[in-house]
Structure prediction request, 554 residues.
Amino acid sequence: MSDRTDARGWLVVPAVVIVGVLFVYPVAWLLVRSVTEPQLGLQNFTKLIEAPVYLKALWNTIIISGAVTLLCVLLGYPIAYAMAHAGEQLRRFLIFIVLIPFWSSILVRTFAWMVLLQQKGLINKTLVEYLGLLETPLTLIYNRTGVLIGMSHILLPFMILPLYAVLSRSDPSLTQAAASLGAPPVRNFLRVYLPLSLPGLLAGSVLVFVMGLGYYITPALLGGPGDTMIAQLIEMQIADFGDWGLAGALAVILLLGTTTTFLLVSRSLIEGVR
Amino acid sequence: MSALSSDRLWPWLRACLCLAIVIFLIFPMVIVVIVSFSSAPFLTFPPPGLSLQWYRKLASLPVWFDAISTSAMIMIPSALIATAAGTAAAVGLARGRFPGASAIASLIMAPMVVPVIITAAAMLGVFRSWGLQGTVLGLILAHATLATPYVVFTVLAAMRLVDQQLESAALTLGATHWRAFWRVTFPLILPAVLSGLLFAMVISFDELVVSIFLSSPTVRPVTVQMWSDVRGDVDPTIAAIGALLLAFSIGVLLLETVLNRQRTHPFAARAEETATQAAP
Prediction:
């Protein structure tokens, strides 16, 4: 290759400047606050460990993200499976169906759940008035249930798409071979199909879990006081208390959480393949 | 259960399950649209009748008009900046040869990976001291930063599919690098560039978290206006604005699909890439 080909590398400069100045520098500035404000030291982190409010929120964050990941696996697998094995037209239709929520504003979707889950919302009306299954309406909003339903709905496409990518490339001859050797459908699925889809399942789970850790809008609108997550704490520290040190410390923890999840999983995958 | 009946039951069960999940995915959006046409004076479902009253109310309130025009004023420049910078970076990453290229690629992709609440808090902290907080310019720059990695991703995927030999052929025939790029490579990646532009537009228009932190009472994009209303007294006006937001993003998605009918969807490709990276 000639030198002039190399020169095209300079085209990355505008994007690097934009991301460097407007993103990397601010994030670094925020993370540094955690050990410099109000003075140099680890006081913000000790404050976090000592206050049950903060520990509760950290715990909530992990539990909610974990539960949402599990729900997305359960809801995402059948759809991804159907997409991978459907005919061309149905496949296109399903991809489009999955992409619509993927594209729609998180706020609008969360608002939709506010309408559906409220005391006199469609779900309660159906259960109480139309079907008469219940005497009193269920409390589905401003609690954990609301957060889990809303977040699973919003994060589901991030489970389906990587899973679909792996399933659509899986070799049908393997399950056919197992079937011809007499494996019943359920065992064939559990012993042959499922293990083959593990990379997609893991990629989707990591994506959903990590995105769940930093969620702000949905828990803020659908959750109750007991469902505060780490992102809401960060917002509160800044908007209500102006405590940039504590906000920085929470940001450090959130960032550590997301990066360790990524690293742990890519490592376990490498070992799993070996 | 005998093998015969489970053979019959399986596909049927699977179809029902899938239908239920498809409804779960789509239903909430349908509800918003239906409620926005409600004739009831308050938020209720199913609505007793249909009317356009909430859209009329929306049009009569200057606060929403201001919010929509603020959003448009932010969206157009930020999408253009992101598309220009992102396309250039994608070409640079695909064709340039320089040390640390993969590190630079991860740097550019970082805004896509870091939780947006951190980005929002960080930008507020720094933009305040630069006098950018609560300004349209601040929001333009913030949204451009958020959207750039998506453009890079989309265009980079297309660049990898372009046969380098086409460009080499143009060079052999005496074209300059500049001309070979614009006349040969660029037309080939143009659909991806347009997709990138559309993504950037939707990212800006639907963005909420960073906008909450960087907006002010006078500079308020439509999502932030909706956010503050949702937390107060919820009425079907919000459903009307929500339906408009949905119409915008789904319209753009349709446009993108028509534009790239042959190509696999970049986000499906992205998911695939994530999966392959995770599984070495």
